[in-house]
Structures are given as structure tokens and as C-alpha cells.
Design a protein that fits this description.
heterodimer; A: about 280 residues; mainly alpha; 14 helices; globular; B: about 260 residues; alpha/beta; 3 helices
Amino acid sequence: MRGNFVTIFFLMLAVLTAGCGSNPPALTEQQETAIQFNQRGEAAFRRGDYAQALQEYQGALSIHRSVENVAGIATELLNLSVVDRRLGDKAAAQAALDQILMERSPAFSADQKAEAAYRKAGYYLDDGNEAEARSWLNKALECCHGCGAEGRLYNLMARMALAGQPQDAMNHARRALALNRNAGDKNEEANSHRLIADALFNSDDFKTAEQSYDDALRLDKESGAAAKIALDLMGLGRSVARQGRRTEAVEYFQRAYSVSEGAGDAKAMDAAAAEIKKVAP
Amino acid sequence: MAILHDDDARFKGLEKKIGFFVIIALLGIVLTVIAVGIQQDVFSPKTRLFIVTDSGQDISEGMEVKLRGFNIGKVEKLELTDDARVKVTLSILRSHMQWVKSDSKARLLKEGVIGANIIEITLGSEKEKPLEHNALIAFERERGLGQVVDQLYAEVIPLIDDLKRVARRADTLLAGLPATQQKLDDTLTSAKKNFENLEKVTASDLPAMTRKGRETLEGAKKVVDSVSRTWPISSNIKEPRTETLPVDSYVPDQAPKQK
């Protein structure tokens, strides 16, 4: 009698526990194919085969268009803009983003528009057109109400303010740091730390800048971003050098040189070598 | 005695006449000798050259010395040297010495297959100077027919032996050929049977097996798919989804540098 109770108890527990979990909906054939195109595109992009990546992303975009999958269309347009930039076709990159920002049907979400505007701002900034960059950054902020790009947007604002307004830059970067930390975006969190450090350095607060560069370095090491590790080490070297610790500074620059050498970045190697020459006791 | 003192007019001045004829005859003989001497280049100035060889075989005094088929002198003398070698003196017309240079060579050879032995001197190069009187000229013997035959014989005999060995081995191989051919026939027959069987199998069983295999795989995939979507397994499997390429806020986007 007692044995039956135990069996019934476990059966009921199993039924109840199974109810807690829910099976995800099965993907349609088009969705599966589009995902395969997308994944092949990403793989091609990672290995530097941008022409192939373009082809794959265009394939994915066609499938998403055929079923009016707005999220998919936005994703592939964003991807195509990155690939177009790598292929040197800046106009095509902007045109891909314009499709998200200007096209009325199908209507893209505010988040997607914010992401596209953020990318346009970044591209304009990279190309030296600060006015256009600022304009698109403001449009992105208008669209973004707790969007995924918010932390990056404030990082970009900090980067723009860095040259002339270090205090504004620090404020933007601190806000970005909080947003990125909440979003769990380690890469952008490291960028926020580095931007804070840069702003502190520009404000001649080298001791605090050193600490922020160190925070950025810790996160960049976790994500394995060689170029950024080198930037952090260079920042650390410059900060300690300005504090008169020249031997330590040389060590940081040597580490930066070694990291850049490992990554095959000749320009960064030259920069590190120049700093070593400058501060070597 | 009366006969000797005969006053016959025909005998008048006989001594003078005889003397005159004798002188004419002697003069004729001398002129003939001179003419022959001139013809034989006896009076032409000559240059002596020497050759030294291990043997004087086939070399004789008076032997012709030629340059490009023209007679330019002769062998004047053969003598043994102190070290038992043969020194041959050649007498060459000085008028032809302009072509006998320090790099010229003397060769003993036969004119034609059965012709007389001669010494042929090769033409020297333009940059070299003509040889001086009593100079030594390099010498070599051309191989005679007998020597050539001997050498050919020495080379052909081993070849003939090899051919004999090859022929014997070929005989042995050919003797075993029927057995090998029989084995080959058997193998081919067996292979043909195997191919026929394989053809039967592929024509009937294989497509069915492939179809069944595909169906089984599709069934298994469905099972795996549905299991993988079931909680809690689904929570451990990353759902396939489209990924967006990131754009960094700090570092300008650029292609990675090639190592």
C-alpha cells in the first residue's frame, strides 16, 4: 500500500516537472535554410572570404524577404553593410542601412532602426565625418528606448567627446559602462573602461587612468581581443610613464609590442617601439 | 803497227772526236742527275723534325710525310735512343713548314684500307708559330684494322654471352607460360562471375538497402530533433539562429591584418 503511494507520488512529480518545461517551436524549412546561409556567411567572414560572405548573406536576405521575416531582413542588411565595408564599398554599406532606416514596408522596429543608425554614425566617424556621425548618433538615441545598442551608443558618444571634452567623455563612458555591464556585453564593457581611462588620462589623472586601463585589460583578455589588449597595455604604459615609473612603462610597452607581434599588427608594433624608445631610461 | 800509222783521212782528229763525245755524254749524265735531283727535291732546302715513339713498327726510311694529302717530306732516318725508344727524323720541305706549327701532330696511318703507311702531319692553328729546325713534333699511331677488330671482338663477345643467357631465361619463362595463362583464365572467369553477382545485387538489393538506410536516418533525425527540443535537453542545446556581425564602438572596423 505504501509502495503504491510512493509510485503515484513520483509519477505526479514527473508530470508536474515536465509541465514546467516547454518545447521550442520547430523551425520552418525556409528558416532553417536562411540560418544555414547566415552561418555560412559568418564562417566566410571570419576566414576573410568577404565575397563569399556577401553571397551567403544575400541568399539569407532573399529567403527572409520571401517570407517577410522583418527581423531576419534587418539582421542580414546589418550584416551586408559590414561585409560591404570590408569589400571597400562604403556606398553599398550605407545603402543597406538606409533600407532599414527609410523603408516603410515592412516596418522595422525602433531597436532595429537604432542599431542601423548607430552603425551609420560609427561608419561616418571612422571616415572622419564627425557632423554626420553626430547627426546619426542623435537619431539612434531617439529610436533607442532601452535598446540593445544603448551601451554602444554612449561609448560612441564618449569616443566623439574624448578629444575636446574629457569630462563629457567620462560621463558618457560611465553611463555606457553601467548599460553594458547590465547587458552582459563584456567587449563593450571593456571599451567603456578604456574610454574612461582615456578621458582620465586626458584630464591628467594618470593614477586612476591606470586602474581603468587595467580593468579594460582584464576583460579584453577574457574575450581574447589582441588589438585591444595591446591598446590597454599601451594606455597602461603611458599612464605609468607619466607618473615617472619609466621602467614599468617600458615593460608595458614591451608587452604591447609582443602582443602586436603575435597578432601580426605592424603598425601597433611600430607604435610600441616608438614609445619604448621615448621612455627607455 | 803499220795499221796504226795509217794515214787514212777518216782517222784524222779521231782522238779529239772521241774526247768530245765523252764530254758530251758526261755532261748529259750530269744534267740528267741534276734534273732528277731537282724533280726529287734533292736540292730544295729542308727542315728536320723529330718524332720519338715506343716502336718503329710500320715506319721505314723514305716513307712519305704528307699534309692534307700533299707530299711535304719523307722519313729520313730511324735510330734507337739510349732508353731503347725510336727516334725518327723527318725531312720536311722548308717551303711547307709554314703550316707545321707547334700544335701540329704527326700520325702514322694507312692510305686507304690496304694502302701504304704514311706519316700525316696535321695543320697547326694560325696563332701558333712554325716549328724550328730539329724540333720535336708530337706523334701518335692510328689504330690499325687488326687493333679495331680486336677491340670489337673484346666488346662483342660479352654481349653474345649475355644474349645467350637472356635466350635461356626466355626459354624457361615460356615453358611456364601455359600454366600462368591457365591461372589467368581461371582468375578472369572467377572475376566475371563475381561481377555478374555484384551486378545482380546492385540491380535489386542495393537501391532497396539505400532507400531503407535513408528512411532510417530520416526517422532517427526526427527522433533526435524531437528529443533535442524536449525540456530539459533543449536547454543544453544552442538553438540555431541568425547572428549579426558586431560593429565595435571603440576600434574602427577594418579587415584583420595578414600575417
